[in-house]
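A further point concerns the way the authors explain their paired sequence and structure data. An entry of this sort, consisting of the sequence and the corresponding backbone structure tokens, reads as follows:
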Amino acid sequence: MTKYLFFSGKGGVGKTSLSSGTAVMLAKRGERTLLVTTDPASNLGDVFEQEVGLERREVKGISHLFIQEINPDDALQSYKDRALAPLRSVFPEAVVRATEEKMSGPCTAEVATFDEFIACMHQPNYDWVVFDTAPTGHTLRLLELPSSWSLHIEESAAGSGQTCIGSVDALSASKEQYDHAVRVLQDVSKTTFIFVTQPARLSMDEMLRSSDELRKLDIQNQVAVMNGVIPEDERNHPYSGRRWRKQELFLQELAIRFAGPIGTMPLYADEVKGISMLEQVGRDLQHAIFI
């Protein structure tokens, strides 16, 4: 049974580092793992020091680990190629171009991205699918789409057969897959949502608001990770000690305001980049949240 981990939180809190470290840790355990980023500003390629794109690729030097980037532009082009291919042999080029122009609105880009996201949730060949998501607002929109988009497909199929991005048949994921995605997201035995925050007011408050929004969508299996915490052996230093005392107050507040498990991750002296650093992150995160 495939299991899913979603890493979410405010931009810049360390989602890519923690999700990448987790994926490396799972793969090193021998579990076939797919790491997917839905963040348009992701630096996943820099973290793994290799090229990443819409087509999934094996990670060099790590068996059982694959990475994929759902870039909205690439997802949109992939959808257009599928939708327009049958038209090119039937209609004049001017008609095809006019149809393509109609498919350039925000609805098209949003749902084309979502279509790729849903496809990643139907990967029976993987033990784990780990999502490095976009900043929280974008992610919430993505997760709210399954039920509304499924209804839109149903109504379109019963009527004209056209969605806001064209023919229902051009979508790679079926209505059944969209409905299945909703059930998977809500299934606590399959999906865990890991909120990454830092010991700072803005990131923590945003994380807690997002947690409440997910609970309204009946996504209950949530974990919080406070990232960038001063390591214990640095807390006696005059500067880092002052920082730790402020961080400790946020940790205490989070324990009161967040109902799920809470883990902490240290502030690293080095940039999280390259396989050996990701292995360290994976080890630390395993102790923090017991995946």
Observations:
- The chain has ten helices and ten strands.
- The domain at 3-289 is CATH 3.40.50.300 (Rossmann fold).
- The chain has one domain: 3-289.
- The chain has a mean pLDDT of 82.
